[in-house]
What does this fold into?
Amino acid sequence: MAVTSNSSNMVVGLDIGTSKVVAIVGQATDDGGIEIAGIGSHPSRGMKKGVVINIESTVQSIQRAVEEAELMAGCDIHSVYVGVAGSHISSMNSDGVVAIKEREVMPSDIDRVIDSARARAISEGQRVLHVLPQEYAIDAQGGIREPLGMSGVRLEARVHLVTAALNAVQNIEKCVRRCGLEVDAIILEQLASSMAVLTEDERELGVCMVDIGGGTTDIAVFTEGAIRHTAVIPIAGDQVTNDIAMALRTPTQYAEEIKVKYACALTQLASSDEMIKVPSVGDRPARDLSRQALAEVVEPRYEELFTLIRDELRRSGYEDLVAAGVVLTGGTARMEGVVELAEEIFHMPVRIASPHNVRGLADVVRNPIYSTGVGLLHYALQEVRHGHDRDGRMVAAPPKRNDVSQRGGGEWIPALAKLKGWLKGNF
It folds into this structure.
């Protein structure tokens, strides 16, 4: 199908999560933001803690989400930028050194020094996802962010190296290709989320971004504008739902509903007078339970999670350098009492963040559950704008392929009326 000028600069982000698959179609705006053209979301059944456990189920979820996004945006999707998370992800900081050939730093010198930094011994079965430059040094002068064109003899680079299990990445790619889609790039989910929710000031001042999803909690620490540490904790929203199901003896789907509607992460904020109906297992009658009793089940799990995040931050060595505090995002961060409990444990400012700098379906996507999806678009558009390859290095030209082609000669489906119906059906 011919690609119209409207759609040639569109990109698609695919967030394959443990609880849901989200496909988001967007294009760049003149002010560096994103215009969202379509969203598709479908429950995810074939993933566990960021890893594919059932290819058929995952393929079906991806297909449904992509079809929904196509319908809303009025386009055909050909390729996607995919997010990846899970305990198989590992990261380290690495250094590289090269001689500057022409006594002036050229793009080829930057490529060589990044290659030198990525040549660290990577364990078998791992694949490099990102080589993210933190800073450069020329001769004795350090702290350089953009060395291009500078004079010197010796160029050093400090980078953040992110690797993932080869088989986990291949399984995700296989699921996407089974849907007839190409994979433009595989992107670390917390890197994507941070692009959607963090401000430039927070990155400069130092911040710990925590994306709490269904299966995993993804952490990214930034200082002086660069990513310094990433980690994944295999505890997230599913554990909270499971705790509710076990403690209240109610089926998992009802436990999830109760969590979303009534749960509170801090017992003292929940009322003991407010009662909720709890469905029982089998044919037994439903029972009444106070909201405070529900909070007593939920709070210990959030406390455990925030304590693990704090310990990870301490281990990273950056705890005293995150002056902007902690930024929480992801579906599991949306609960009453989460900020208050987190501030008690971290002893620093905490905020819950949604994607910013978005237009189009902004009212829909300004929600922590879409942080990764919108972040994937930010990553993709930055790549297209700057002509970067997936490791963040310069390449000759931006990606050749167009992600979407317009349907019906470029006529947009009147999105507003459809959107209202879609919102009612999904929320």
Observations:
- The CA atoms of residues 241 and 256 lie 5 Å apart.
- The chain is about 35% helix and 30% strand.
